[in-house]
Amino acid sequence: MDISIIVPVYNTGKKLRKCIDSILNQTYKNFEVILINDGSTDNSLSICKEYKKKDNRIKIINQDNKGSVYARNSGVELAIGKYIVFIDADDWIDREFLNILYNEAEEYSCDIVACNPYLVYGNGLIKRIRTDFTQDIIFENEEIKNEVLSKLVGDTGFPSSLWGKIYKRNLFENYGEYFFRMKFFGEDLALNIELLPKCKKIKVIDKPLYYYRCGGGTTKYMKNLFEDTITTYCIQKDCIDKYYSNQKKERYAKISFIFLNTYKLVLVNMCSTGHDKYKIISKIENQVKDVNIRNAIENLNTTREWFEPEYIEALDNEDCRYLYNWGKKVYNKSKYKIFIKNMLVKLNI
Q1: What is the DSSP string of 91-113?
Q2: What's the predicted TM-score (pTM) here?
Q3: Is residue 6 within 8 Å of 72, Cβ to Cβ?
Q4: How far does Cα 274 stand from its chain's mean position?
Q5: Burial readout 183-203 (b: 16 or more C-beta within 10 A, e: otherwise)
Q6: Rounded CA separation 299/297 (Å)
Q7: If you classify domain 3-213 with CATH, what class do you get?
Q8: What are the helix and strand counts (H, E) for the chain?
Q9: pLDDT in tens, 214-242
Q10: 153 Cβ partners below 8 Å, 6+ apart?
């Protein structure tokens, strides 16, 4: 078996058929599909079983809801292909996706090959190419650290997503140092930071072959968001300490900006709980005392000017009422924007 395709599935029944059809209709045929039903409560499992009856390349793992980290891990443990591909269950791929990425990996002996995605709404009538890569480039050895991994710890330019790539399966031997520390948010970044240093050769290609469904967004509360945000920051610091110690001050400043900017999302997310104002303020009081937030504020240096002064002053002074009011205001605005976007998406389903 050349390729193992891992698809975590959780309540994506309305979109799952398009994903599976795009896989089974690939021009490249020597692959297996591992569908991990992660405790879905809709008809996702029955759809998986329906397709399994049609195609013996499909395997199903049915497990209690453990989250996407452990769903993907279940797929990795079962995979037997030389390469692994991750596809989100609400996305789909071009008919040539496997053919092109597999042949590029084989021809150039690459550990990872990555392509550009289409960003789509609905079933793809509204779409645009996200140009992560403007030309085909091969990175080898030290270039991977300097030109690829570096983009995940302060720089920009290499997508942190697991989808849109093909990975050699041997990269996953004894993996999990960073990946299993995540609950939900930032797992893609954590795994790529873990895998990239193992690579000897990576290729990026400018063809758009993956269809990423943007959707309209959600106001659903993510209970582990704060913890995952902190864990991501700590993983990035660890990576900097290992590979960029001579650039520590500059890179710490950049990831501190990213961390504290992401904390804005945490504030907005907490305001989606419907909890009492003073209960949320109490949570904020605990969060802003966290040693990582205090550390990030100290590390901002030149990136401090990228923030509005009032926000950083509120963090500096632990002004939790200001932070609550800021989060509530942004949340109230976002509800209407998300509603409008979701309506547009539904019109295109």
Answers
A1: -EE-TTHHHHHHHHHHHHT-SEE
A2: 0.93
A3: yes
A4: 27
A5: bebbbbbbbbbbbbebbebbb
A6: 5
A7: alpha beta
A8: 12, 10
A9: 865 444 668 889 999 999 999 999 999 99
A10: 193, 236, 239, 240, 244, 251, 254, 255
pLDDT digits (tens, 9 = 90+) for 267-293: 999 998 888 999 999 999 999 999 999
Q: Pairing relation of β-strands 201-213 and 137-140? A: antiparallel
For residue range 43-89, list pLDDT tens digits in order. Answer: 999 999 999 999 999 999 999 999 999 999 999 999 999 999 999 99
- Amino acid identity of residue 18, one-letter, is K
Spell 84-98 as b/e; 16+ CB within 10 A means b: bbbbbbbbbbbeebb
In the block, residue with structure tokens 């979701």:
342
Gyration radius from the chain CA atoms: 21
Residue ranges of domains in the chain: 3-213, 225-347
Residue given tokens 């950083």 in the structure block: 312
Q: Tell me the residue type at 109.
A: S
Distance spanning both ends of the chain, measured CA to CA: 34
